[in-house]
Amino acid sequence: MGLRLSKSIVGKAEAEAVARVILEDGYLGMGNEVRLFEQEVAAFLGVDPGRVISVNTGTAAVHLAVQAVCSPADEVLVPSLTFLASFQAISAAGCVPVACDILEETCTIDMSDAAKRIGPKTRAIMPVHYASNPWKLDEVYTFAREHNLRVIEDAAHAFGCRHNGKMIGSFGDMVCFSFDGIKNITCGEGGCIVAHDEAAAQICKDARLLSVRNDTEKRYAGARSWDFDVTRQGYRYHMSNIMAAIGRVQLKRLPEEFGPARLKLAELYRQKLSGVDGIKLFRTDPNDHVIPHIFPILITSGRKKEVVEGLDAAGIPTGVHYKPNHLLTFYGGGSLSLPVTERVYAQNITLPLHPEISEADANFICAKLLKIVRSFA
Ligand SMILES: *Cc1c(COP(=O)(O)O)cnc(C)c1O
User: Fold this and answer.
1) Does the CB atom of residue 86 touch ligand 1 within 6 A?
2) Residue 58 has what DSSP assignment?
3) What is the mean pLDDT of residues 144-158?
4) How many A from CA of 176 to the centre of ligand 1?
5) In DSSP terms, which residues pair with 319 in a beta bridge?
């Protein structure tokens, strides 16, 4: 059947958009197409276009956000159960990721555990919208205000999602999205920061172009900076016109096509798998609009290995989101113990989820999974 865990959903419209940039514009770097993409993302989120800074990966977005609001040696509270990119972005800025435990019901950061890890060097907190779930994001902001911390949202999973009716990215502090090949929308690779603080926005805007002052404005006017000054470290993290052309098409397809398709599949999984002995599903808040990027579940029977092997034998790929970062040598090699994170890691598998999985595929996946899980009951 050739089932895939995740997939870029691109076709003729994206190909035509890239062809238009190549054949009509001919400038493939960061120019007018990127400016239009930023304007359209801003309109979609309901923010000022000057606050949207597009970059070449989601990891670059998180790195730029961290270096804009933290200084080297500052500590950043972050859940251990996240993509390695969250941790690498923090350490790339010379900061220290402080691994926090998670809530078992959502895999989002456990604020009571985070509170215990605050120290004199704590400068920011990085909530990760695991499986696109903003869960109690308001509490993170309240906590940050109480402890005088910056908030850097790793919203890589959560483009197009809402918290209490508000679009993720439309409020808050520093919000980072990923547009890599398998996220809710893709630019091929790519990402963006929505910076609600003007000073941080300017730092990110410059830092994506080697920190050449105001280079973005020049490029959008079709000009270049030949005489300039630089006052801080910068990077080559800008987005290209080719990526932006793909992203502009994807942005239009999200509300009518990708969002409903992902939601429908997740709903089907929920219906078939809830209340089953040996399987635990994660919670979302009914006040939130969650367009799931991944569909993780817990295999609570202690037979995760057998379930993964059984599904694999039936041609059904599964994933692990994620290996906890505090277990990696570079981040302490397990010298710290985070009980919920470690328990979830031992039980967590991710089922195939992307808009081209049919209802028949999803039914087949559920039937196989239920058969395997019940054989161990
Ligand atoms: C995808 C992802 C990123 C990084 O995005 P890239 O565009 O792949 O660099 C960061 N954090 C999380 C949680 C992600 O899933």
Assistant:
1) yes
2) H
3) 98
4) 9
5) 350
Measured CA to CA, the distance from residue 12 to residue 18 in angstroms comes to 10
State if residue 59 touches ligand 1 by the CB under 6 angstroms criterion: yes
Roughly what angle, to the nearest 10 degrees, separates helices 241-253 and 12-20? Answer: 150
| Residues near 289 by beta carbon (within 8 Å), at least 6 away in sequence | 161, 162
In this prediction, residue 1 carries a pLDDT of 56
Ligand 1 atom closest to the Cα of residue 321 is: 15
* pTM, entire model: 0.97
Q: How far is the CA of 114 from the centre of ligand 1 (A)?
A: 22
Long-range contacts of residues 143-147, Cβ cutoff 8 Å, at least 24 apart: 143/111, 143/114, 143/115, 144/173, 147/118, 147/122
Dihedral sign of CA atoms 196, 255, 126, 182 in order: negative
- How many angstroms separate the alpha carbon of residue 281 from the centre of ligand 1? 23
Q: Is the CB of 82 under 6 A from ligand 1?
A: yes
Which residue lies with its CA nearest to atom 10 of ligand 1? 85
* Look-up of token digits 């959903």: 9
